[in-house]
Amino acid sequence: MQHKKVTVFNGDDASPEVMKPTVELLQKLDLPITFEFPLVGDIAEKKYGKILPDETIASIDSADATLFGSTSGQSTAALFYLRWGKQTYANVRPCQWIPGYQSPMANPEGIDFIIVRENLEDLYLGLEGNIEDLHALNFYSKHARSSLTDLGPGRYAIKAITEAGSERVIRFAFELASKRAAKKKVTLTSKYNMLSQVDGLFRDIGMQVSQNYPDVEFESFIVDDFLCRMITNPHALDVVVMPNLYGDIMSDGAAGLIGGLGLAPSGCYGDDYAYFESAHGTAPDIAGQNIINPTATILSAVMLLDYLGFTEQAGTLNQAVTQVYSEGKVIPVDQGGNASTSGFCNAIADYL
Q: What local confidence, expressed as pLDDT, does residue 146 receive?
């Protein structure tokens, strides 16, 4: 097997409590992977004079992938570089229930779909400012039937959807659906009834791309309609693709269907790079208590292994998680059990 290098950021608050044992689990698999831990944030600034020093950027660039811990600010500079600097445009968020997850649904068995969120555009470009700065453009709202200048003081944010950005993430979703064994279906959602120029463009490009995948079923729904369908019939979904903001919101909602964000892994993919992180935050309220659920981070590591080509070992680690939950003896606190973070990771290690 070809040797690989993975850059690791442990993250902030409670995040290192799940990142460190997850890396230890990966090391137990005895794979040809070198793990590197560059500095970022205040500690990097004290040593190098920058929160994201050149040495850290070089570590990311020379790595085959990155395993990233949740950030509350300290590691944000590295996250932005991993996202926009490495052009990781497809945020893949699996939603799969397994026995042992404490789902609020009456019938969670069989829920298994993936949300593909566009990761670089939309409102997340951060193009914001004072409304007064736009007065010279003399914008007129057809909906409000008034000029922008009539609104009074306030703030604006620009929602930008590009043809190239939409096409590549939608194509990614179709490629993913074509490789899955189940439904082979792509569901596209956006607010194309109200935002015909931007969300309508996303939908139109989806329709165009679908013509190249005759073996993959295609459907589209307005995002509020989609939310209702996701709650009432999640079993009908396979691969779902949507613009950035909707994807951020809907994927967290999807995690709620199976039992919460502690179970939600993610991977962010570009054409030649990827990084992997749990979908949850840094959980500062429980930092140091050894009770944060490591499942999302471990499953993100499963995605990392699969990306690096260690498919068999990825399956082994995934099966370990499934087995521990199915036995029901070592269940994390947020899933109704009393297992500590380290206790759950030890159970996974025993399986391995």
A: 84
Cα–Cα distance measured from residue 121 to residue 252, given in angstroms and rounded to the nearest whole number: 19
Q: What six digits make up the tokens of 1?
A: 């097997």
- 112-118/140-141 β-pairing: unpaired
pLDDT of residue 173: 98
For residue 26, the 8-state DSSP code is H
- For residue 318, the one-letter residue type is N
Q: What is the pLDDT of residues 158-193, one digit of tens each?
A: 999 999 999 999 999 999 999 998 789 999 999 999
Quick one: tokens of 262?
A: 């502690």
Q: Could you state, in order of their start, the residue ranges of all structural domains in the chain?
A: 1-97+260-352, 103-122+161-258, 125-158
Q: Could you give phi then psi for residue 45, rounded to 5 degrees?
A: -65, -40
Task: Enumerate residue ranges in the chain where pLDDT < 50.
Answer: none
Q: Are 251 and 115 in contact (CB under 8 A)?
A: yes
> In sequence order, what are the residues at sequence separation of 6 or more whose Cβ sits closer than 8 angstroms to the Cβ of residue 155?
128, 129, 130, 131
Q: Is 103-122+161-258 a domain of CATH 3.90.190?
A: yes
Topology (CATH) of 1-97+260-352: Isopropylmalate Dehydrogenase (3.40.718)
DSSP letters, 32-70, are SEEEE----THHHHHHHSSSS-HHHHHHHHHSSEEEE--
Distance CA 110, CA 95 (A): 10
